[in-house]
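pasting for the record
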Amino acid sequence: MKLTRLTLAIPLLLAATGVAAGQGSDGIFPFGFREVRLDNGFRAYLIKAGAPGQIAYVSMVRTGSRDEVEDGKSGFAHFFEHIMFRGTDKYPNYDGITSRMGAARNAFTSNDMTVYYLVAASEYLEQIADLESDRFMHLRYSESDFRTEAGSILGEYQQSATTPMGFFNEKVRETAYDRHTYRHTTIGYEDDVRAMPEGYVYSLAFHRRFYRPENVVLVIAGDFDEARAEAIIRRYYAAWSPGYAAPAVPAEPAQTSPRRRTVSYAGRTLPVLSVSHKGPAWSANDRLAAATELLGAVAFGRNSDLYKRLVLQERKVQSLNAGFGLSRDAGLLTVTAMVINPADLQYVEAAILETARAFQERPADARLLQDIKSNQKYGFLMGLETAQDVAFAMIPFAVNTGRIETVNDYYGMLDAVTAEDVQAAARRYLTENGRTVVTMVQQEGSR
C-alpha cells in the first residue's frame, strides 16, 4: 500500500513542476534547472521548486577533513564551518544581517565537504548573494577571534570524544586506515585541535587554498526569476579569483590481512561491535559501486533477515546499523551492532560474518532487492518537498562530481542493479583480508 501511494504521487510531483526532468533529459529528478558557469570556474545551479516566496541558498565547498593532508593540521575544514560566520570588512555583523532577514542559516562539515546554507524569503536573493560571495572572497578575522574560535572547537572535541560512539568512531578509523586522511574524524586529532590556537597564519593560507571558485558549487532552489538570479550570480561571483589546486591525498595501501582491536570506554556503555571492509569510491556510473550501497540495505538493513533475527526475534542486539554510503575516496562499509549482553559479542560477530558469506555464495533475494530499490527511489522523490529539501538532495552529486546532472545517472544505475551484481559486490569487498573488527567494552570499574 505504501509503495502504491508513493507511485501515485510521482506523476503529481512531475506535473507540478511544469518542466521536464533535468533540463529536458530523461531521469528521476523532476525539476528543471539552469546551470550558470562563470569563466573563473564557479558553477551554480538554479532550481525552481518548493513553496512560493522562499529560497534555499546552499554553497557546497568540495573540501572536508579528507583534504587535511599536512601532519598536525587536521580539523581546519571544520574550523571554517565556525569562523565563516565572523563576517567581513563590508559586513562585519553577519548574524545580525541574516537575523533581520528572518533567515535560517547554518553549516556542516564531513569527510568530503563543508556546506553553508540559508533559507529565507525570495525577496532577499540579491542581498544573500552579496553577503555570501563577500564572505567567501573576503573573510576577515583577527588572531584574537581565531584563538577564541579554536578554543571553542577544543570544547566541542572533548564533548564528542567523551561520548561512547564518538570515542568508538575515532578508534574504528584509526584501526582501519594507515595513510588516508579518512583516518581522522572531521573534528581532527586531539593533539591537532589543542595546537590549533597557534595556527592563525596557517588558517589564512587554508582559506586562500580551498575557498576558490573552482572548488565551490552553489545551488539555489525555490521561488525566483531565473534570468534575474543568473544576472545576480554573475554580478557577485565573477570577480572571485581562481587558483584552486587539489591536495595530494595519500592513497591507502591495500589491506592484506584482517585487523582486530578491542578498546575500553571509561564510562557506561553497552558493548559495541563494528565489522568494516573498505569499499569503492562513490560513482554515478559504476554498477558495482551502486550494487555495494544496495548490499548494505539488503544484507544488513532494517528489512534484512539478519536485522529481524538479532534485533526483533532473538533480542541480542539493541541496534544494528549498516553504513554502506560511499565517499569521494574508498571509505568503510561498516556494520555496527550495540549488543545487549557482553556474552553475545562472539555470537553477533559470527552472525554478521555468516551473512556476508551467504551473500557471496548466492544472489540476493530479487524481490527484497526490488523493494529496497523502489523505496530508495520513491523516498528520494517524496523527500523533495521544500526548497531546502531539493537543494540538500543535490549535495552528494555536487560534492562527488562537481555537477548535479549526475543525479539521473546515479538513479539510473541504481535501478539497473541485479541480484547478481549485489553478489559480485559482496565477493569483491566483503573479504577476510580486507576486514577490520573493532569491539568497544565498558572499562572495568566504570559506572
